[in-house]
Amino acid sequence: METLEAIETRRSTRSFRADPIPGDVMKKLLQTASASPSYTNTQPWEVVVVSGPKRDELAARLLGLATAKAPTCADLPIPKGWPAAMDERAREHGARRLSTLGLARDDAEGREKLRLMNFEFYGAPCAVFLFMDGSLGEWSIFDMGLFAENLILAAHSLGVASCLQASVTNYAPEIKKFLGVAEGKKLVVCVALGYANKKALLNTYHGIKQQPDAFTRWCE
Asked: CB neighbours of 129 closer than 8 A, spacing ≥ 6?
């Protein structure tokens, strides 16, 4: 797949088939992502790939925590608010997704079911956790974003679907304990990987992207 096509056609997938990703494909994805740029070549990323029985066990633990509405403790705090224009885009995004599924905003049961799908990785057979050292700051977080983007683009080019998951990181301490990761590491993001369930209604929704004129100013 050509690079521009990969960028333009990649979508977040929220319903996966159970089919495992072959080991050689996973190794290729990580090898490709390892070429990502980073500030002074520091390469801050530390990766844990979870699949098979371990994936199932972790999903069950996370689902239990989320269902019980256990206290959250993300290493990177979830934003509590947005500037007006961003907030409007986020609200429209949420409303359109609910509409696609035929859910009303006041459908508390339906919305809760949708929320809990996060913690089972939307059925994806593989969850990739991206960590960095706890001493690192904003520039390294930027580098982690570059790595994550290259990982999901590499996946898309090989027919592997993905979803970047922030909600999962709300239970960072429990995840680190389960995976044997030092408490001093920061969990940046979880990436669900697998093959898309193309029949799922949830996968028919696509977010609306701004056109360049809306965010670009030219100085010549």
From this structure: 47, 48, 50, 175, 179, 181, 187, 189, 190, 191
d(Cα 136, Cα 118) in Å, to the nearest integer? 27
Task: Return the bridge partners of 49, or none.
Answer: 128
Which residues does 150 contact at the CB level (< 8 Å), separation at least 6? 32, 33, 35, 36
pLDDT tens, 69-116?
999 999 998 888 999 999 999 999 999 999 999 999 899 999 999 999
Domain residue ranges in the chain: 3-205
- pLDDT value of position 105: 86
Q: Residue 174 and residue 153: Cα distance in Å, rounded?
A: 29
Given CATH 3.40.109.10, say whether it is the number of domain 3-205: yes
pTM to 2 decimals? Answer: 0.96
Give dist(CA 135, CA 126) in Å, integer.
28
